[in-house]
């Protein structure tokens, strides 16, 4: 055990957080970084499972470190939220932000993802109900085999795309799919109601998904299970879970993009 862990583990952590919030003591900060750094590898490892081979695990870890540092600076110990839960959300968000910034997804794949999203939106608006795989494949003009192959190619993009952020005005006022832990005290008061509205839209969009797709989203993003673990829970293959996840993301993005556009026009 390191000197810092040995020194500070004997203290009540809530008291340490309160002290750090006031003093920004560098040694306490170093202790918190050291104590919670394993979370970065944990989150990076789970994200890496769904990434293409050209995405290096060590890169994901380095991206995640920024999220941990951000979590330490912004964590509010007065709220009834465990730091571990808060930090994992920030770490995941930081990794996804960096993946987007390096633009590792080929343009052709990005275009196909958008096409799938648009077709699902069009069909569901036209039919007034959830559409199945056969209907989507028919509209795409491909066989079911080609459709399943497309979903496999899009799987990596979908892991990133649900962490998109909605900016509401000030640079600190933001909402992402994963971010539901931000304290309203950190926001511009004029945007608090709008942020809550967006959260409600996200919840409603998830609830509207087909049952299996909804389970995949909840288990992956909120219960922190890997796609393989979700497959074991639902008793289907990992590749099938990946397909369900990709379709769920396309449905959610089509629903949320329309609402986002309407809100931003106000």
Task: Report on the architecture of this protein.
The chain has 266 residues and is mainly α. The protein has two domains: 3-102, RNA polymerase sigma factor, region 2, helix turn helix motif (Rna Polymerase Sigma Factor, Chain: A), CATH 1.10.1740.10; 107-264, Up-down Bundle (Butyryl-CoA Dehydrogenase, subunit A, domain 3), CATH 1.20.140. Helices cover 71% and strands 2% of the residues. The chain has twelve helices and two strands. It has helices at 3-8, 13-23, 26-49, 57-74, 83-102, 107-127, 133-140, 144-161, 192-207, 211-222, 227-234, 238-264; strands spanning 165-167, 174-176. It has a two-stranded antiparallel sheet. The radius of gyration is 20 Å and the shape is elongated. It starts with a helix and ends with a helix.
Helix and strand arrangement:
Elements: H1 3-8, H2 13-23, H3 26-49, H4 57-74, H5 83-102, H6 107-127, H7 133-140, H8 144-161, E1 165-167, E2 174-176, H9 192-207, H10 211-222, H11 227-234, H12 238-264
Antiparallel strand pairs: 1-2
Helix pairs in contact: 3-4, 3-5, 4-5, 6-7, 6-8, 6-12, 8-12, 9-12, 10-12, 11-12
Tag the structure with descriptive keywords.
2% strand, 266 residues, RNA_pol_sigma_FliA_WhiG, two-stranded antiparallel ribbon, RNA_pol_sigma_r3/r4-like, RNA_pol_sigma-70_dom, Rna Polymerase Sigma Factor, Chain: A, Butyryl-CoA Dehydrogenase, subunit A, domain 3, mainly alpha, sigma factor, 12 helices, DNA-binding, 2 domains, 2 strands, elongated
The Rg value, from CA coordinates, equals 20 Å
Instruction: State the helical fraction.
Output: over 70%
Beta content: under 5%
pLDDT under 50 segments (min length 5)? 165-175, 180-192
Largest sheet: 2 strands, antiparallel
């Amino acid at each position: 055990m390191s000197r810092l862990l040995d020194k500070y583990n004997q203290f009540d952590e809530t008291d340490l957080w309160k002290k750090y919030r006031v003093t920004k003591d560098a040694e306490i900060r170093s202790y918190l970084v050291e104590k919670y750094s394993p979370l970065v590898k944990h989150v990076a490892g789970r994200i890496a499972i769904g990434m293409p081979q050209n995405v290096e695990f060590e890169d994901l870890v380095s991206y995640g470190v920024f999220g941990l540092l951000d979590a330490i600076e912004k964590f509010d110990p007065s709220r009834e939220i465990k730091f571990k839960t808060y930090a994992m959300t920030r770490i995941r968000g930081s990794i996804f932000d960096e993946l987007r910034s390096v633009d590792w997804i080929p343009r052709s794949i990005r275009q196909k993802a958008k096409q799938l999203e648009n077709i699902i939106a069009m069909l569901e608006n036209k039919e007034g109900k959830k559409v199945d795989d056969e209907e989507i494949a028919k509209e795409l003009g491909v066989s079911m085999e080609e459709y399943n192959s497309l979903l496999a190619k899009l799987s990596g993009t979908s892991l990133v795309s649900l962490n998109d952020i909605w900016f509401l005005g000030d640079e600190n006022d933001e909402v992402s799919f994963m971010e539901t832990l931000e304290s309203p005290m950190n926001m511009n008061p004029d945007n608090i109601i709008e942020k809550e509205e967006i959260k409600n839209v996200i919840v409603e969009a998830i609830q509207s998904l087909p049952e299996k797709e909804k389970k995949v989203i909840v288990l992956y993003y909120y219960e922190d299970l890997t796609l393989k673990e979700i497959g074991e829970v639902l008793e289907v293959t990992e590749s099938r879970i990946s397909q369900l996840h990709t379709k769920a993301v396309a449905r959610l993005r089509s629903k949320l993009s329309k609402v986002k556009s309407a809100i931003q026009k106000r």
